[in-house]
Design brief:
Chain lengths: 308, 337
């Protein structure tokens, strides 16, 4: 971004009357700070609410932090106990499907971009259109497929006696396959955007030299894709971790041992006597923690993935 | 690393060899994998060496996986929508009719859901485009802390719908929610933002704009970055005012970014189910905030009207097709595909 700020300072600021600029600058920064408030207040108030005792919750405004003695992490403790199995499940399906998506996406983008053959555009169009299919249009068949047809939990029954494996891992496997299938189109497009800019001559030359399609992929394309793999991992990890509809479809119930973190969160803090907001807020933060961490640590790479 | 270097050297050698070869052959035969040796292979052999077959191991497995879950699933969904399946036993594929589609016309809930979907679609998309544009133009100047500011504005996009819905339930809380406290400063309210059928859709749109305007901003920023510098210079030499420069030089060039951002935003709006599910109490929607996506899931998973739910899903799919087909065609014509 730094080059850009150099580029655009030209029209805005440099050679106007000093006083006008000063006033304009003040207005600009005031707006920017006001916007920071707008984007952070919902998150901030969620956080302070989650650490308030019930007295502090009653006595202080939702925006203000609890006074001395009004702080407690009790709700975080409770929310964590609820969410812990969900967090484990989410990790168990998010990471494998992220890796599979990246591998498949890179392979598909290579086969459809850097190797030229007739009819390629049609296949590519199907991939790209696949990004935009609303999940609602597939969840009923998806449900039918996994519950009536595939029945992985019954078919893999011989596995559940093994250590570390349990029946609900079949559901997680279903989620891995599903997330991979629906992630492949967008990841293919991400890799394609990079492969399109790759030096075509180099690949052509390698082919003349007798390198096979596979060899070119392994020796030229793959090493050059490493930065894109990072972008894809970050982007797709966030996407799959945050996903809800497939969890609701395939797992179905919060009480299922395979329940994901988002699924448990959606039902957290619901009681007959009202909603336990502090518990919900604590749960929201615990659920969001992995993606928040990824986001803050790799902000630029994340933005790169968003930009497709 | 050594491998790559070695390969790059061999590539250079190959390139020269290749050029010599193509010059010696006047007929412009396409370059082949075998390095252009005299073609004495059988037709089977040639087919096996063709680029289509050689590249198939790369794109075919992902294509089959995706094709099964996307395209076959949509076909299956259509088939289901023609049955009267209600979750018991197996769907009866022998007796197909369009009855579910006729039912949609007589379902008053359908009209409300369709209207709300369009309000959400248009309101959310336009608001995101405008707010995102403002953010991008503000950040695309010589300012301090540009990078952290951008990170903050995009932050909600990194969160799950389920997470942001929790925050906004709290923000819109009737008793002491921040929204009511804020407008209370101006002597307004309090309003029941999520409970009142007239306010709920607007409240949802507002929250979704909070979550997605950063996304639009990122798209715009990338586009702004690609505007060549000399265009600013030229406009400045011509004595264009700042406002005129924005109107005539900058904003028109953002149009492609605007188009692709609005396609994605509309699709987010079409499937805003997650958010509405979490901001309501599960399948029971807020009164006045039922959209096609929530109705579809409710009919299927809560009321076990699987076939009817599938019919609504097909309607949703057709709607999204109406959004993306022109976009894809346009991309194809521009050669972006």
């Amino acid at each position: 971004m730094s080059e850009k700020s150099v580029t655009t300072e030209t029209p805005s600021a440099t050679d106007r009357a000093t006083e006008g600029i000063e006033l304009g600058r003040v207005g600009l920064y005031a707006t920017l700070i006001g916007l920071v408030g707008f984007y952070l207040v919902p998150i901030e108030s969620g956080f302070v609410t989650s650490i308030k005792t019930s007295e502090a919750l009653r006595d202080t405004a939702p925006f203000f932090p609890p006074g001395p003695g009004g702080t407690t992490f009790e709700k975080w403790q409770i929310a964590f106990d609820y969410l812990a199995p969900g967090l484990v499940n989410s990790v168990l399906f998010t990471i494998p499907s992220t890796i599979l998506c990246a591998i498949f996406g890179s392979m598909a983008a290579y086969g459809l971009t850097l190797v030229k053959w007739r009819g390629q555009v049609a296949v590519l169009a199907l991939f790209i259109a696949g990004i935009f299919v609303p999940y609602q249009a597939v969840i009923v068949p998806l449900y039918e497929f996994w519950t009536q047809w595939a029945q992985l939990d019954a078919r893999l029954a011989f596995l559940w006696g093994l250590p570390l494996l349990a029946e609900h891992h079949a559901t997680l496997l279903e989620l891995i396959i599903t997330h991979t299938a629906y992630g492949v189109p967008i990841i293919t497009l991400l890799f394609r955007s990079q492969y399109k800019t790759m030096s075509w001559e180099m690949i052509e030359a390698a082919r003349l030299d007798g390198a096979s399609v596979w060899r070119i992929y392994r020796r030229i394309v793959l090493p050059l894709s490493v930065p894109m793999f990072a972008v894809v991992f970050i982007f797709q990890f966030t996407q799959i971790w945050n996903e809800f509809l497939f969890s609701l479809t395939i797992i179905g119930s919060v009480n299922n041992p395979a329940a994901s973190a988002t699924l448990i969160l959606s039902g957290l803090g619901e009681a007959l006597e009202g909603t336990d907001y502090p518990l919900r807020m604590a749960g929201a933060f615990i659920t969001a923690l992995p993606t928040l961490l990824v986001y803050v640590l790799f902000a630029d790479k994340f933005a790169e993935g968003v930009r497709v | 690393m050594k491998d790559v270097l070695e390969l790059l050297c061999s590539v250079r050698r190959g390139r020269i060899a290749g050029r010599d070869e193509s010059e010696s052959r006047p007929d412009e035969r396409p370059i082949r994998t075998d390095g252009g040796a005299v073609d004495d292979r059988s037709s089977l052999r040639r087919w096996l060496d063709s680029d289509l077959v050689q590249s198939a191991p790369f794109w075919l497995p992902p294509f089959l996986l995706m094709g099964f879950f996307v395209y076959a699933a949509i076909g299956w969904n259509f088939l289901l929508s023609l049955t009267s399946y209600s979750g018991f036993g197996d769907p009866n594929y022998g007796d197909l009719s369009f009855e579910n589609y006729w039912t949609m016309f007589e379902d008053p809930g359908m009209w409300a859901a369709t209207r709300n979907t369009f309000v959400l679609l248009v309101g959310f998309t336009l608001a995101c485009l405008v707010v995102g544009l403002v953010l991008a133009l503000l950040l695309d100047r010589e300012i301090r802390f540009g990078r952290p500011l951008r990170t903050i504005y995009l932050l909600p996009f990194a969160l799950s719908f389920i997470v942001t819905a929790q925050f906004w339930r709290w923000m819109y809380n009737v008793n002491n929610g921040i929204v009511n406290q804020f407008i209370g400063l101006f002597g307004l309210g309090p309003y029941n933002w999520l409970g009142s059928p007239r306010l709920v859709l607007g409240s949802v749109i507002f929250a979704l704009v909070w979550q997605f305007s950063g996304y639009t901003m990122i798209i715009y920023l990338a586009a702004l970055r690609s505007i060549p510098n000399d265009q600013y210079e030229a406009a400045r030499v011509d004595g264009a005012s700042t406002i005129r420069m924005y109107r005539r030089v900058i904003v028109p060039q953002l149009r492609p970014a605007m188009v692709s951002a609005s396609v994605v935003l509309m699709l987010f709006a079409l499937k805003a189910f997650d958010f509405l599910y979490a901001i309501s109490d599960g399948y029971r929607p807020r009164r006045g905030a039922d959209i096609l996506a929530t109705k579809m899931v409710r009919e299927s998973f809560s009321r076990s009207e699987w076939a009817y739910g599938s019919a609504i899903a097909i309607l949703l799919f057709v709607l999204s097709l109406a959004v993306i087909a022109p976009y894809l065609y346009n991309q194809y014509k521009r050669g972006n595909l």
